[in-house]
Amino acid sequence: MRILYVSQFFPPEPGASAGRAYEQAKYWTRANHQVTVLTGFPTYPAGVLPPRFRWRMMVRECLEGIGVLRTWHYATRNEGFLRRIAAFSSFFLSSLILGALFFGHCDVIIGTSPQLLAAFSAYLLSRIKRVPFVLEIRDLWPAVLVELGIFKNRRIIRLLEGIESLLYRKAARIVVVTEAFKEAIIKKGIEPSKIEVIPNGADPELFQRKPNGKVREKLHINGEFLVTYLGNLGVSQNLSSVLEAASLLKREKDICFLFVGDGTERDKLLEIKEERGLDNALFVPVQPKEKVPEYYNASDVCLVPLRSLPIFKSFVPSKLFEIMGAGKPIIGSVYGESRQILSRSGAAILVDPDDSRSLAQAVLTLKNDPERRKQMAVSAHRFVFQNYNRETLASRYAAFLRTVLQEAPIPEIFMKRALDVVLSLLALAVTSPLWVLIPLAIWLEDRRPIFYAQERVGKGGRIFDILKFRSMVADAEEEGPLQASRGDSRITRVGKILRKTALDELPQVLNILKGDMSFVGPRAVRPPEFETPWNEEMDGVDMTEIPGYSERHKIRPGLTGIAQLYAARDVDHRYRFKYDLIYLRNRSILLDFRLILSSVWMTLRGRWGV
Q: Considering the entire predicted model, what is its pTM?
């Protein structure tokens, strides 16, 4: 496969987003996929461009076989509302222009969020290049920004929420890193089958290198019990609570707290350290990815903290997997999915977020129990590489991308839509006299209404109104919808002719032109048909459990199709869905032509029945 991965951050930038992009791209490249990462110039943590990137708009690189296309963006530290907006917006524009003009063909485009505008750029590039767009969600933007109070401007929030909703709907597939993220997106009306959970993990290669053991020497830490936090020093991590625990343990002269990283809260944390005279707390600048194992190896126990906000119950910090990969015990002050993973691992002591006293007690417990630390270390290493091996996860991700490509060959997607538009316009022109004669006949028999509209389920589960010429008496569904049958007294004289020739379906050409339907596809069913069975044989059966329920919503419903042509009207959904699946698994432009011609022939012969 030829993969374009759009991520604003990539090594030498540190952090979870850069690490995930690099590690996945590395393993994909080794599996003989052609991977290009469209990313920004590195600016972290100082917020300035390195000299070799100044006065340039684009730089091409190759990192371990990965093509890297870097583009300019406004350089700033990760702080300040307007500066962040400028950094995000400038990358959106430059990556979109650069990707459109200087990147060639690919098979699939992945857009990773945060930040959300990078994913939006990826989506627009997928439209320009006419390839599937896969949305990768590592954080629930803008919800988390709103809950943390980072974004307060309602107009900006509404704009980001609109982009978020658009990306969920337009993505061919969505990849999320936690089960809770999947549930949150499903609640926004997205079909569960569209979402795949591929979590973060630990890269085995990162921890195969033999550490040099010089970290303690460099930091002048000799026999102290070292408690380490490594990562972003931001508002999400609640690190002031960790400093509070350090304050409670000030008298324990052989315990040291080490903070490795940078972020918006660093200066505030340093102020707290100075105010409280915390000589047992050390701060070290952000380190390159390859140095991370050195710091973990030097540590006795590592911390995974998060603030106690409801939204963080859905989060799983990527550092959790790296710590276990390094074989280190963890003290986790987290809730939700992170807590569940740590509990299963046997590698952690769990405390409540914001409970600095319990955190301090957990540190003392592990300090005084080296045998327990040893057991936790073994459990951590075994658990993470059995369940969250980055190489295995990258292979699974690649297999998932292949299924996206196999579901609908991309040239045929656009040929099918082009065919729909051309045939719709042609049908409107050829049948133009019928648009006068049929309404006139209906009006002469029993006046208006001429048209009949009914809710149907479309692609991705979206509800739309299907149009027909009315073929029944005006109050036919006064007591609720009921499937028509042979000799149905509700069918009018004009309606009998329309139904035999399927001309009552003619207004659906407008649905096709609009994009609600296609000429060929699964039958467009009513929403109630998915909630309550209408056939006695299906009594008590949940329609969502019938094989084919989710699969048939991957494409637009059709005016005609295999089920419409060959399945009797009175068979239940279990059999109708089988016909739909036959079409889904064998669809092609040639098959569409054959089904359209068969439908025209049945119309000319008046063989459509009721």
A: 0.64
